[in-house]
Amino acid sequence: MTVTSPFSSGGRQAQGLPRLPTPPTGWPIGSYATYQEAQRAVDYLADNQFAVEDVTIVGVDLMLVERVLGRLSWGRVLMTGAISGAWFGLFVGFLLAMFASGAEVTYQPILVGLVSGMLFGLVFAAISYASSRGRRDFASASQLVAGRYDVLCQPRNAEQGRDLLAKLAMRPSGSSS
């Protein structure tokens, strides 16, 4: 069984999937408030030998939700820039140390990479933050969410899928498949 995220195709083109964005087809057999509930419904169908190849989960009423994580200050911006630059510099330093000529192990390329990375990270973070001129003094994370998630099924199996999901709805939500 291949596990994929709701936004990927698992790294390869699946059988029967369109290459271009295409509106979904099928009849609604269930509607759920959360993606987790819709996923549980499709998992239940799969556990009951249903042809899940005919099923599509569709997020309806899409919203872009931006969650504010905190206030930005010069100290926080510079610290974050230095840390991210240090990681990149450490990586470059290790690569240089691995391919350095000579039999003995030297830590000089690692140290140079670390310090250089921190300096570049500081400079780029400072330039980026200064160029915003206080218009965005907060950090945030964005997420695409739906108001509801509909489970669609091709007409040939929609009635059977609707019947199975009705049985699932009759069970307590805490019980497993």
From TrEMBL:
Organism from which the protein derives: Amycolatopsis thermoflava
Composition-biased stretches (Polar residues)? 1-12
Q: Which segments carry the region annotation Disordered?
A: 1-25
| Span of domain General stress protein 17M-like | 29-102
Which Pfam families does this entry report, sorted A to Z? Answer: YflT (PF11181)
The membrane-spanning stretches of this chain are 77-100, 106-130
Q: What is the lineage of its organism?
A: Bacteria, Bacillati, Actinomycetota, Actinomycetes, Pseudonocardiales
Alphabetized InterPro entries for the sequence: GSP17M-like_dom
User: What are the alphabetically sorted keywords of the record?
Assistant: Membrane, Transmembrane, Transmembrane helix
Q: What is this protein called?
A: General stress protein 17M-like domain-containing protein
